[in-house]
Amino acid sequence: MNITEFQHKFYEYTNNREYKEALKLVDRALEKKLPAKDLITKGIAESIKRFQSFSDEGYINVSAFQLLAIGKIAEDSIEKIRPYLKESKVAGEKKKIVLGTIENDFHGLGIKILKLFLEINNFEIIDLGLNVKPRTFVDAAVENDAQYLFVSTMMLHNIIGVRRIGELLDQMNHRKAIKFYVGGAPFIYNYGLIDKVGADDSAEDMYELLDKILEKKSSRKSRFSKIIRFFRRS
After folding, report:
1. What pLDDT score was predicted for residue 89?
2. DSSP codes of every residue in 9-58
3. Domain 3-84, CATH class in plain words
4. Residue 31's CB: how many other CB atoms inside 10 A?
5. Long-range contacts of 71-76 (CB under 8 A, 24+ apart)
6. Measured between alpha carbons, how far is 40 from 49 in angstroms, rounded to an integer?
7. Among residues 101, 162, 154, 150, which one has the least CA distance to residue 123?
8. Is 143 exposed, middle or buried (0-12, 13-18, 19+ CB in 10 A)?
9. pLDDT tens per residue across span 4-37
10. Which spans in the chain are helix H?
């Protein structure tokens, strides 16, 4: 078994809500000594992304019941893998990141995966969870002396709340001290939304976010290139 085969089978079992088979697959992958980080980021996270489609409703053709089942399978799979993860050793004090989903957004699985990914890369996470008010985000970042604020939404109509965070950072004079990142389906192909909500930047996936936070030059293709390919396919 390689990581591509794992991802394919994990998606199949998750889509069919085959809980026991999905967890057995994780056990087999760990026995085969597939890298734990890859199982989460390239296996589980990529599988979950396939259930996400951009629209004002957030998810297309996925029932609330199916979302609960998907979440349960993914979360329990991650817990199986967690003990095998090796934390990156980075010199100096851990940087702090406040994260959560904006008010009226309850899609938290991606945030949970992101939290784990950042933790093993030596970041201290202040997880506010789901359905968080704009002022709560800003207050938490200030109170915890966080350098970064990451806000996610899967719903286009929640953009107003995200924009309010940018306004509060300006009004309270915290713009220079706190980097404001946004993520979620609405920002993937509508790059102009980043400026409209007053965010510093966006990241399509956890690797891109980490590269930007660490100020590394990413080897990944630019978002603009992805947008061009998207319209060529349309």
Report:
1. 60
2. HHHHHHHTT-HHHHHHHHHHHHHTT--HHHIIIIIIHHHHHTT---STTS
3. mainly alpha
4. 9
5. 71/108, 71/109, 72/19, 73/13, 73/14, 73/17, 73/19, 73/22, 73/23, 74/14, 74/44, 74/47, 74/48, 74/109, 74/113, 75/109, 75/112, 76/19, 76/23
6. 12
7. 150
8. exposed
9. 999 999 999 999 999 999 999 999 999 999 999 8
10. 3-15, 19-31, 36-38, 45-49, 64-81, 109-119, 134-143, 159-171, 185-189, 192-196, 206-213, 223-233
What type of residue sits at position 191? Y
Rounding to the nearest 10 degrees, give the CA dihedral for residues 2, 6, 7, 13: 160
Q: What was the pLDDT predicted at 225?
A: 46
- Would you identify the CATH topology of the domain 95-213? Rossmann fold (3.40.50)
Nearest to 48 by CA among 149, 129, 116: 116
What strands lie across the sheet with 179-183, from one edge to the other? 123-132, 95-102, 148-152, 179-183, 201-202
What pLDDT score does 54 carry?
A: 44
Return d(Cα 156, Cα 193) in angstroms, integer: 10
Q: Find out whether 177 and 120 touch, Cβ atoms under 8 Å.
A: no
Query: What would the mean pLDDT of 74-95 be, rounded to a whole number?
Result: 81
Contact indicator for 155, 56 with CB cutoff of 8 Å: yes
Residues 106, 126 contacting (CB under 8 angstroms):
no
**Nearest alpha carbon to residue 181 among 159, 160, 166:** 166
The domain segmentation of the chain, as residue ranges, is 3-84, 95-213
